[in-house]
Write a structure and sequence with these properties.
The protein is α/β, with parallel strands linked by helices and 368 residues long. The protein contains 15 helices and 17 strands. The N and C termini lie far apart (57 Å). Bound molecules: flavin-adenine dinucleotide (FAD).
């Protein structure tokens, strides 16, 4: 089979690896617009369940990935300066670049042809020349745009703004920090992903964003402002920028997932709000599902229900963060409970199982 993949992110690389493993006779070519060492993004997180899926799909890359991992079991919620830890949540973090390097090496070892610095604009000749064209070209997918009449995408740019930073302050666990100032409410999502660096994502609502005057602020001034909001949490460490810019989260859905020999994968196909830390996980699990399918119809019918359930939970989580200001009157314990149960996937009973001590401190209030 001749397979052409647009995009060498986690979805495209992992799909190439799995297909080449299944049959070394496949001719697989990836076109990636960036170079192999371009550093976009900070860390990515995986749950324990995702790791089990990755191990079953490809033990070799799983071993490499987990060698580099920072693992934790606590979610920390910081409100009014008080930290509430909730245990029993298994997560791990790795640098996005490190993950890409592992997948790039594995793909090349298996004989996948990866063409870096190759931005594709014209897909028709490639499409005609292969058995399967995979659009794994991320959230702003040009494959999706080019064939919009076939995929019929539904794109919802949310009003909330967020920005990805890094920091050398180490957050041991997924830490959700809420801070308020005269301009409004800010939430930070942070976790360490190697021995010296943490991801630090900050979000705020559009009113707060305007009042703070971010539109006219330089990168340096923005970092200084946010560093000041989270001064008590950053412990003197500065925020590190990696071409970091304020982004509106784009919720992506597609009516049709494929046509003829062309299919979308990963962020090009669907997004789930970063507050449930799942973009990379979903991209790689998409690759597993597509590699295990005997047709594109089969891929769509088996994977779509999984994605819809996930997107529904992610939507609830996103709404919670969009309305975070409304919850600031809660005590730190109450807020921690509200955060933990925001997507509807974790109940009072489940929290009791994961961390009885937390529920004991909360008392029966959480049931209300
Ligand atoms: C810049 C950036 C930073 C991110 N940082 C984080 C993070 O720190 N933590 C986290 O959890 N998630 C992060 N994400 C989100 C997360 O990485 C995605 O959910 C996940 O990577 C989805 O994987 P993917 O392979 O579908 O898409 P992507 O990882 O976006 O990969 C798509 C690839 O396609 C390439 N491409 C796009 N158009 C073309 C074209 N026309 N021709 C050739 N190549 C093309 C892009 O260069 C990119 O490498 C980030 C995403 C991006 C784009």
């Amino acid at each position: 089979m001749r397979i052409t993949i647009i995009g060498g992110g986690p979805a495209g690389l992992y799909f190439a690896i799995l297909m080449k493993k299944a049959d070394p006779a496949h001719r697989i070519v990836i076109y990636e617009r960036n170079g192999p060492d371009d550093t976009f993004g900070w860390g990515v997180v995986f749950s324990g369940k995702t790791l089990a899926n990755l191990r079953a799909a490809d033990a070799e890359s799983h071993a490499e990935i987990t060698k580099e991992f920072e693992a934790w079991d606590n979610v920390d919620v910081v409100h009014r300066g008080e930290k509430i830890s909730i245990h029993g949540n298994s997560f791990s973090g790795i640098a996005r670049l490190r993950l890409l390097k592992i997948l790039q090496r594995r793909a090349e070892e298996l004989g996948v042809e990866v063409n870096y610095r190759s931005e594709i604009q014209d897909f028709e000749p490639l499409r005609r020349d292969c058995d399967l064209l995979v659009g794994a070209d991320g959230v702003n997918s040009t494959v999706r745009l080019r064939y919009a009449d076939r995929f019929q995408p539904n794109l919802d740019a949310r009003e909330h703004r967020y920005i990805w930073y890094g920091t050398n302050q180490l957050f041991h666990g997924l830490t959700l920090t809420f801070r308020q100032n005269e301009h409004g409410t800010f939430a930070a999502h942070s976790y360490k992903f190697n021995k010296s660096t943490s991801t630090f994502i900050v979000e705020c609502d559009p009113r707060t964003w305007e009042r703070a005057g971010f539109a006219a602020m330089s990168d340096e001034a923005t970092r200084a402002y946010i560093g000041n909001v989270f001064a008590a949490d950053l412990n003197g460490n500065v925020l590190l920028s990696n071409n970091s810019k304020w982004i509106n989260f784009l919720l992506v859905k597609n009516t049709d997932w494929f046509f003829e020999n062309t299919v979308l994968l990963g962020d090009a196909l669907h997004t789930a709000h970063f507050s449930i830390g799942s973009g990379t996980k979903l991209a790689m699990e998409d690759a597993i599902a597509l590699a295990q399918s005997n047709s594109l119809e089969h891929f769509t019918s088996t994977r779509r229900p999984v994605i819809e359930t996930f997107q529904a939970a992610a939507f609830e989580s996103m709404k919670w963060f969009e309305n975070a200001a409304q919850y600031m009157h809660l005590t730190p314990l109450e807020l921690a409970f509200s955060v933990m149960t925001r997507s509807g996937r974790v109940s009072y009973e489940e929290l009791q199982r994961r961390d009885p001590e937390f529920i004991k401190r909360l008392g029966p209030r959480g049931r209300l």
